[in-house]
Specification:
Elements (H helix, E strand, L loop, with lengths): L7 H9 L4 E5 L3 H10 L3 E4 L3 H4 L11 H12 L6 E5 L9 H14 L3 E3 L7 H9 L4 E6 L5 H4 L8 H17 L3 E5 L3 H10 L4 E4 L7 E4 L1 H4 L16 H18 L13 H18 L2
Parallel strand pairs: 1-2, 1-8, 2-3, 3-4, 4-5, 5-6, 6-7, 7-8
Bound molecules: 3-methyl-2-oxobutanoic acid.
The site of 3-methyl-2-oxobutanoic acid has 12 residues, from β6.
């Protein structure tokens, strides 16, 4: 496997050459290192951190600074994988200027690309970012940042909704995005979009016909105890950590941990000198 850094160009080339792309979210150094060691093509510092890291009920409270903080930790792993910074709610919707400035700040930090949610309604922002030299990943179908208006349901169940999502995809490609995440749509919609675009589609809960897949780290390793219905769990992470923490708790309470191999001792003569010093101190202070 080549160890060359993955770029947006690599994503487009992968589609052209029929190679499927793998992405996972990452929020810290160890996640990024694990993902890179597993050979994924891209990591997303997703605003899903609002739920899986901060315990919020939605992604809406996530700030520019929250993503910046976790991006810094991911970049510290110096991943070969493409690093995509997710732009949180209200960091790109208000104006083209804000969108470019905020996206540019993530790029200056070291992100390889940014992702924004939305279709035709954000096209002017995408165009402005691409014009500024910022690689942009789109995100259509279910847009969690718009759940108050659109709900958290499967998209593309009707021909009309499917064709709206298709138009979003075509407009984003036209505006210059290098890839599009399709979240929680019917598989027919994702398949038709994938066939129609030159850029790769990365699906989450939208079926097998896309050019790649992405999952949230905590969902795939089983740390999320109530994952979305489209998730495949590859480990029982929650139970694994719970068992470890329970055994640790029992060991400390029973005095089984730490054992002799877990601590370090003074040389006997140093220990004698140490006791002498303490005794003198105690004598001086009268204790
Ligand atoms: O924030 C995130 O994790 C995402 C993925 C669901 C694609 O946007």
């Amino acid at each position: 496997m080549s160890r060359d850094k993955v770029t947006p160009y690599h994503f487009i080339k992968s589609k052209r050459e029929g190679r499927r792309l793998v992405m996972v979210t990452a929020y810290e150094y160890t996640h990024a290192k694990l993902a890179d060691d597993a050979g994924v093509d891209g990591v997303l510092v997703g605003d899903s951190l609002g739920m899986v890291i901060m315990g919020y009920r939605s992604t809406l409270p996530v700030t520019f600074g929250d993503v910046a903080h976790h991006l810094k930790a991911v970049l510290a792993a110096n991943p070969r994988a493409l690093v995509v910074a997710d732009m949180p709610f209200l960091t790109y919707e208000v104006s083209r200027e804000e969108a470019v400035r905020n996206a540019g700040r993530y790029i200056k930090m070291g992100a390889d690309a940014v992702k924004i949610e939305g279709g035709v309604e954000v096209i002017d922002k995408v165009e402005a970012m691409v014009k500024a030299g910022i690689p942009v990943m789109g995100h259509i179908g279910l847009n969690p940042q718009r759940f108050l208006v659109l709900g958290m349901r499967v998209r593309g169940k009707t021909a009309e909704d499917g064709s709206k999502i298709y138009e979003d995809a075509k407009a984003l490609e036209e505006a210059g995005v290098f890839s599009i995440v399709i979240e929680f749509t019917t598989s027919e919609v994702a398949a038709e979009i994938t066939k129609a675009l030159r850029i790769p589609t990365i699906c989450i809960g939208a079926g097998p016909m896309c050019d790649g897949q992405i999952l949230v780290f905590h969902d795939l390793v089983g740390l999320n105890t109530s994952p979305p219905p489209f998730v495949k769990k590859y480990a029982e992470g929650y139970q694994l950590f719970l068992d470890a923490l329970k055994r640790y708790t029992e060991d400390v309470k029973s005095g089984t941990f730490p054992e002799e191999r877990h601590y370090f001792k003074m040389a006997p003569e140093e220990y004698s000198r140490f006791l002498e010093i303490l005794n003198k101190k105690k004598a001086r202070s009268g204790s």
